[in-house]
Amino acid sequence: MNATVYINGHNLGTHPYGYTSFFHDLTPHLQAGSNNVLTVRVDQSKHRNSRWYAGSGIYRHVWLHVADSVHVVPWGTFVTTPQVSAAQAKVVVNMKLANESGKQSDLALQTVVYGGSDAVAGRANSSAAANPGATIEVSQEITVDQPALWTPDTPNLYRAVTRVTEDGKAIDEVSTTFGIRSIEWSADRGFVLNGKPLKMCGGCVHHDQGPLGALAFDRAEERRVQMLKESGFNAIRTAHNPPSPAFLDASDRLGMLVMDEAFDCWAKGKNPFDYSVSFKDWWQRDIDAMVLRDRNHPSVVMWSIGNEIPERGEPLGAQEAKMIADYVRALDPSRPITSALNFIFGKWSDTDGYYSALDIAGYNYNLNNHADDRKRVPSRIMACTESYPQSTFDYWSMVDDSPYIIGDFVWTAIDYLGESGLGRWYYRDPKDTSQEGYGAPYPCHGADCGDIDICGNRTANAHYRNIVWNRGEKLFLGVRQAPPEGKNLRVTRWGVWPVYASWTWPGMEGKPLEVEIYSRGEAVRLYLDDKLIGEKPTTRAEKFKANFSVPYAPGVLKVVALQGSGTIATSVLKTAGEPVQIRLTADRKSLRADGQGLSFITVEAVDAHGQPHPNVDHPVTFSLNGPGTIAAVGNADLTSEEPYQGNQRKLFHGTGLVIIRSSRTAGALTIAATAPGLKSGSIQLVSRA
After folding, report:
1. How far is it, in rounded angstroms, from Cα 400 to Cα 387?
2. pTM, entire model
3. pLDDT digits (tens, 9 = 90+) for 335-346
4. Distance in angstroms (rounded) separating the CA atoms of residues 27 and 403
């Protein structure tokens, strides 16, 4: 928050909102032929300004733009596809050009659209005259035959390259990546992409990168989108602020729908120094920064103007919602507008005025109101903008059964820093009937409610969600955590009962463990050492779940999913042997020597057969030889007091993470890991220029 920029000691201005991009013109204050000093001062002294971990300082890219005095305005290009079919698409390229010279400029503009393999898909030429000091708008139309449409499953991209010339000399060139796709929305069909209704299998994500803190490395952003895509998500809500451009670039390339969100509050705040302090003077500029910057991304299919706004049930909230929504529509009429509302103290119908300003009504945790709201306002389109992880089936059933509900966004898709203790579970005395508080005290430092943990490992609930959504997985086998004798296991509101894909439970021999199975089959059969334990149905009526009580004995636990007379999937858990070695597995072994390359290396303790051991908590020490640095270390324990920076971290449930960052020097890198009583592990990477 509160970034003040100086050039050669001259104050260029202060930007209060830490989540939106901004520009300053350095030109009048540069000293030709001398060293120029650019200074950014961030004043983060006034806390609290966010309800989660915000970070501090420069955490996203800073770019220096060099342009002619006549140029395309930054964020001044807007590419739309108002007519789309399988045979043909109309592409409209709108541009703003500024003439900051002292004379009239007669300009020629050529835009070429490139498709896959850089094949030319269409072009347009036009001319324009710009008076000195004027900003003009130019529009071009280009027809693309047999377009390759953008969808989450086929994220085809195009580039519109506009070259501006004057007197035959090129003075500016702008390349804009876009996708050809159409979106519609209605209460009868819901959200429609390229003419086909599509349900959003969504999750909310905060902006932090776990062990990396708030640093928005391009690769870290891409990895998050990859993990969510692989887990079955097709949509993300950027809670509760605009994301980095790198996050949207990755969503475009990989095929992820995005609800791009602006604010967590408006005129009324939630914390003493949050956005409410700046809302009156800055909301239009920050909406500009979000919409103008992000509107060419095909992944962005919806704008959210706010989350759980405190004045949501009041006339003031309705007025503000209309004011902001109308402003967004003036900038971009091609996308629907939503906002996320949770419970209010008055009548729920008091939110009707607020909702009337929106195209899609966002419901946080209160989607059970949908039937009554449908009767009262039949034209309303709805989205479950936040849902409890423990109610995965119930929320999705409402979405799946109701055309006017476009999707569900769980809170959350990935664990995050801040809102400490949200989603936790703990042991307590059976006589303790106290009500759960919000969060938990130190050493809790993060929210443990994600389908994916802070290091990138999928939880059991991630597999369950995939199966409920019918996104490809057919079977998951796990075991519920058993509380110690004399204790109960308490799951808090955003949590789920801990379930692990493990049949290694020393000390539990002969005691019953609850085996939990998720399946898309009609039924499942469970075996221990090839002896049938039992068979149970796993249809929708059973919420795709089956549970068995099994006395623990080391061996092989196996489940098969049945459909008709056949088997559609099998899953096996084997008791691990004693841990003997550390194993390192990199998500990528080749990095770019640009100081930005990252390799996320999973650290595991394995037995003599290479099977991970889930109960090891050894401290692991890392060393690096070569042109790079250890950017961060971590594990999924959000109560750990170990630092994320350093060269040592304990394993948690037998696993951990070390993140390697490239330097600007090419060369080979060797990472080694040692732990007491275990053979060391190592891995080689290469950094290329």
Report:
1. 15
2. 0.96
3. 999 999 999 999
4. 54
